[in-house]
Amino acid sequence: MKKINIAIDGFSGCGKSSTAKEVAKRLAYKFIDSGAMYRAVTLYMLQNKVDIKDEAQVMSALEAISIDFRHNPQTGKSETFLNGAYVEEEIRKMYVSEFVSPVAAIKAVRVAMVAQQQEMGKYRGVVMDGRDIASVVFPDAELKIFMKASDEARAKRRQAELEEKGEEASLEEIVKNFRERDLQDSNRKESPLIQVPEAIVIDTSHLEFEDQVNKVLTLANEQIEG
Ligand code: CDP
């Protein structure tokens, strides 16, 4: 059967990753969370006190960074590893969220991540979520989705996710971080977050998870069968 690539872009915390993950599972495709890659790079920069304004330091950090996703047979989930170490939980914490946008704005960081992402999708059968997937990583993706949601819906969902992992954050703090990241991600020079004209917009503010998954699956099946 024909395999396609699916690009899901959009603002912070509107359900891109969870939807992409489930869609990939139902299609038996590979799910790639590109945000996890920028988060892992950010964690490395923080752990190693890399001065991100110093190009030489950034370049040598990038040479030392290796990111991979491993399937955990117990949870059935894909987990992020940085230089062989499990970082899936650490990269979701607020202190990483607060530093990720400036790191993701660095050209050398983007060049390195985009090359890996394109490699992962070269045989198609990939669902990837992020900010520049439809515009830069897979401009030839057969299906392009742009997701958005209200501040309230996004913050409530993110708060619940953090709580589940034992981190407490107020709705105000979460909304502030989303808005700051959205602003920086949309206004940076290198591959900013944009909605490409051919993208199909899905507002998840009032959608149940199952409905947003089904919407994407219906669109995907039209492309696969068509
Ligand atoms: O899950 P959440 O919406 O909070 O964010 P994420 O998808 O994990 O992405 C974290 C950050 O990585 C974003 O705020 C962007 O700064 C950056 N990012 C990016 O620049 N390009 C991508 N393709 C994906 C993420």
TrEMBL record:
Subcellular location: Cytoplasm
GO BP terms, alphabetized: nucleobase-containing small molecule interconversion; pyrimidine nucleotide metabolic process
Source species, domain of life: Bacteria
Catalytic activity of the protein: dCMP + ATP = dCDP + ADP; CMP + ATP = CDP + ADP
Top EC class of this enzyme: transferase
Gene Ontology terms for molecular function: ATP binding; CMP kinase activity; dCMP kinase activity
A cellular component term, taken from the record's GO annotations: cytosol
Amino acids binding ATP: 10-18
The protein, known as: Cytidylate kinase
Gene: cmk
